[in-house]
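Teaching soon. Invent one.


***
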Amino acid sequence: MIDAASAQPRRIQLFDYTAVNPDGSEVKGVMEATDQEAVWHAIAVRGLRPTAVKVRSRSLLRGFLDGLTKVKLQEIVVFCRQLSTFVRVGVPLTSALETIAEGATSKRMRQACVSMVADLERGGLLSAAIARHPQVFPPVLADLLRASEMTGHIDEVLIRSADHFEREMETRTKIRGALMYPAIVLCMALAVGTGLVVFVLPQFRDLFAEYGANLPPLPAALLGFSSFVGNNIAWILLALLAAILGGGYYLRTESGKMQFNRVLLRLPAVGEMMRAASIERFCRALSDTLAAGVPVSTSFSVVVESTRNPVYRNALREVGAQVAIGESFSRSLRQTTLFPPLVVQMVRVGEETGTLDQHLAETAKLYDSELDNRLKRLTAVVEPLLIISVGSIVGLVAISLIQSIYGFASAFKG
């Protein structure tokens, strides 16, 4: 039995090093490695004479900021396409990665490329070097490359990977674009309404007080609310901050993510969109890994763990457990109740004919089109709701202003 502790990968650290070129000039740089010995070896392999290697000390603030900065999916696409071109024209992997590192816009990508160069110079494989940077590269990329290293078609798999991540990026862009417009309109409406209540209505209160008149009920209620907020702004902000931090912490837990996504999946329009997106991503990712020659067991486990929706991820884990004991893939999918009969039928036919990757690819295309339709429907539903909401907010404040004006005119005549 393998010792679990020894099976864990060693923690990667950041090292500052100083070395001397054969011509005597000094070279300084940064490298990611597991220990100082690995850095000394990587520097020596490059024909340099290392003189100093030390672990870079990282402050808590820098560690926190580094954790927030992620490599964009667009940069992963560019990395795959560039590396594929270099491999196809016969450029060595180490030289290719050094060139990509020089042009990388992200510091994390640059450091990962430098570290991979060191791994390759020590005799490691490209897939293993990429797998050591799960915070930069999606796990599915390492598995696709691992299969291609056996067949020698690394450039083709890199192009396939770039296409896969590009489609993933397009899907994310579609969803964000559909949700961005309603969010902006609603925030603008709230900002206008708040400005009128906080800055305009109080002027009428001062005028009414000067002439000894009483405000109409609606403006009085809005001003009372405004005064309450102004007098207790510190407590309200503290309560909002506590709610945001508490809610954010809960949503980071597994149970919080699960409950939140279950609620979203039950919503009429949003739930349908999320189902279509989850099914499309799963089918596309599994199809691409199978088409690249990755074994079914490895493909499935990698795709499941990279599934973004926790409800689907947990269900697919159960599917994997059922398939591992000999259950049919299509029958296991049907038992989750999360996949429509169409998906189950396509998987069943793919299993029987030995063309599972092709049927999954067709299913992914179908649900990509379905996702577009769902997004259009969501926009069609949200736009009237936004018009009603914005009209209600602005109308409420406008009625209050009109009542205040007429009330002031009546008090002035009296």
Remarks:
- Confidence is low (pLDDT under 50) at residues 1-9.
